[in-house]
Amino acid sequence: MLEGSRSLLTQREIQEKLSNEDLDELLRLWWTEQGAEKRRDLDLIASVIPFSTEAPLRVLDLGCGPGDVARAIYARFPRSRIDCVDRDAFLISICIGVNRREGVPAQHFVRDLWDADWHQGFEPRYNVVATANAFHWLDALRVAQVFQDVWDLLRPGGVFVFAEPACSEERFAPGFAQWKARQPPRYSRGHWERFWNRANEILGYDHTKLLGSRDSRLDDSLPVSGWMQFLKNARFESIDVLLRDGDEVILAAAKP
Ligand SMILES: C[S@@+](CC[C@H](N)C(=O)[O-])C[C@H]1O[C@@H](n2cnc3c(N)ncnc32)[C@H](O)[C@@H]1O
Fold it and tell me: What is the pLDDT of residues 161-170, one digit of tens each?
């Protein structure tokens, strides 16, 4: 079993179980689970990366899951090389399967961001670090440390782009909650269950029991200003709120 993996099967065993049809079905179920806004988010994340589309970028996708962020960036920067990191052996197996099938030049690492040495062996040469909906699985102290790691791993001039859940500031919370209740919900328990029921069928055990049970985590307890403060504390500049909706914020920042 790979270091950091929490699976009952090795990552390779999971990969061998995933047929092309399984990959297609799982991706479809994943996109439904991730909500209609996911495509917009990926498009925005890839679009703001301020480099030539011909540039041979080094890209790091943290908490890659099935790899949507990496592939969205690769689609715009076809000379990029991607490193994908996730602690979950099943989700990263989907990522590996789809990346190999689509010829995305990526390396995949089963690592846990709770571990101080999650980036062991990585060289500090990334032009882009990107993440969608993974940091909120950490607590505030760990996010601060991981943002510092991201800073260290970026080249000067590199950029950090991420989408994460965000609440409103306390003063605006009641009205914001009322407004949000009138919006179509992005996520549904049913969609989550459909993805994981199919995953469990393929795997032959209940993989959801392995998902992050030991963590205390941020979830959506942090307002946009909190995410920005983490960036400022790690010395990032050009911090920009690219988008904010009822569920999340997308932020970008640069290492000068
Ligand atoms: C909601 S999914 C998002 C996946 C992917 N970024 C996407 O947009 O489809 C959250 C991902 O974060 C990963 N994750 C959560 N905590 C993690 C940790 N401590 N270390 C590494 N990955 C983690 C999960 O395994 C999962 O793949």
Answer: 999 999 999 9
